[in-house]
Amino acid sequence: MQFSQFPLDPRLLRGLDLAQYVTCTPVQEATLQAVLEHGKDVYAQSQTGTGKTAAFLIATFWHLLKPENHDKFALILAPTRELVVQIEKEARTLGQFLKFPMAAIYGGVSIERQRQSLLRKPRIIVATPGRLQDFINQQTISLKNAGVLVIDEADRLFDMGFHKDLLRIVKMLPAPQQRLNLLFSATLNNKVGQLAWEHMNNPESIVIKSEYPTVEGISQHLFHVSRSEKMILLLAVLKKENPESAIIFSNTKAGARQISLRLQRAGYNCALIEGNIPQKKRLDIIAKMKAGKIKFLAATDVASRGIHIPNLSLVINFDLPDDAENYVHRIGRTARGTQTTGKAISFACERFVYNLSSIEKLIKKKISVTIIDDALKQIIDDILKENPDQGAISEKTMSGTPQKSSQQGKAYTRKPHGDRRNQDKRHDHDRRQPATGGSKSTGSKYPPRSPREENNHTPRQGYQGRTHSSTSSQRDYKRPNSQERPSGQNSRRESHEPQQRAPRTASTHSHQRQQRANTASRGDVPSKHARSTEASRSRGEQSHGTHDANSQKQKNILNFISKLFNKEGE
């Protein structure tokens, strides 16, 4: 079915003709029939590259051109900055004769310029939820006058954690019956379905997909290769395929940077897109790639959605993605729109080969394994001659044998550090024990603790500081007898049995009270430190007095005993 068969505004049809939109794709035809002919909301599942952007833009323009909606605007939500820029550019192309003011709202660029664009009352607002929420909080924009809500890549919005922001934004809009609602997603899940049925007005469900979730025109190939051999194989594949343009995807930012630097060193014109690249530079790189000034692009999954590069002939998965859905979006960068064919090559190393089963389960298809032929082998040999520091390709890689990790289960799995620490952890008491004896049951060089030590945590033998008893809160101090102290040694460290200090008596307290009274009568009340010092001195004198009395008593007893023995001898 052709676009001219729908009741569209002539100015919009003129824009479609200039953009070379003549025949509708299945998702475009189904969407326009539901909206233009039946006036219904649309809840559509359609894979990337099937023309869904043009589908919801044409329906949006048609709705805003109604006389009763002359003061309404459309809000289009997308998950990434790249996708926002692409949608806004497509909207300007299709609606270039409608003269609708438009605004693209996303992070990473000047917020003041975007604020000025919102103050001009745009009819089309394309935004990421995060930056839009900032403007709502600043009261720069009100959503009460929205006439159209479009949610693109709804599954990706939820994956990126925009669920709460999305719900807050939707609740600020007019009731679902007072607006046109269009929701598009490459994959469907419970959250997407719940959003559709709670915040849309009895939408018509549209499912447009081929037998496999990937585009049928994409030729998919797989190499089993070790991690150390992937870079050499990448150079060989690029030399053999000689594509006009290609995107090489890596799972990590560091991996993408390494690919970019290695290709540049090999003489290729390669750019880099990853999360740390500023948005202005990203847009400049994409524009240069579309213009043919850049041939290759090394990227992370930030570029797997929202980037449309015409006639992209090759996609290489340097790493198999951890999320199977990202595989669909990665290879969907090729064979888009009028381009009917494309090629995707994936490297399965020992680290990411475990992601292959979930990918094949999603696409319901086995990816054909490619064996290195003679032509590719000759290219590899030539590269190795130019780079003697690189190792030769193994026989496993040559034969297409899957790479297996030396560890059982998933590669690079490690036990938590906490388990290792708990195994080596010992009680402080055990560390203080001498390395003699040992435990026969555990094989440890440390002797086992007694039950008493387990319960009371008794310090090691020879420690004569303060001891804490589990049955008493009193503190016992060592006060050795001055007559028993060896000269030049600390008897506290030599003695093993702490002694009780002399208890305070009534006479001691009476003596202290008398001293304070005498001091007060003289008019010089001592300070707290002075009183404390005086009390300590008083306790010391009392202790020495008690000690002298005990010594004299012992002498009297000894004299009495000696006299008894002398009398018996007589």
From TrEMBL:
Residues 230-380 form the Helicase C-terminal domain. Residues 419-433, 525-547 have a biased composition (Basic and acidic residues). Residues 392-570 are annotated as: Disordered. Residues 396-410, 458-474, 505-521, 548-559 have a biased composition (Polar residues). Residues 33-206 form the Helicase ATP-binding domain. PROSITE patterns: DEAD_ATP_HELICASE, HELICASE_ATP_BIND_1, HELICASE_CTER, Q_MOTIF. Signal peptide: none annotated. It comes from the Bacteria. A motif (Q motif) lies at residues 1-29. The keyword ATP-binding applies. GO terms for cellular component: cytosol. Keywords: ATP-binding, Helicase, Hydrolase, Nucleotide-binding. GO terms for molecular function: ATP binding; hydrolase activity; nucleic acid binding; RNA helicase activity. Residues 1-29 form the DEAD-box RNA helicase Q domain. Belongs to the DEAD box helicase family. This is DEAD/DEAH box helicase. It comes from Entomospira entomophila.
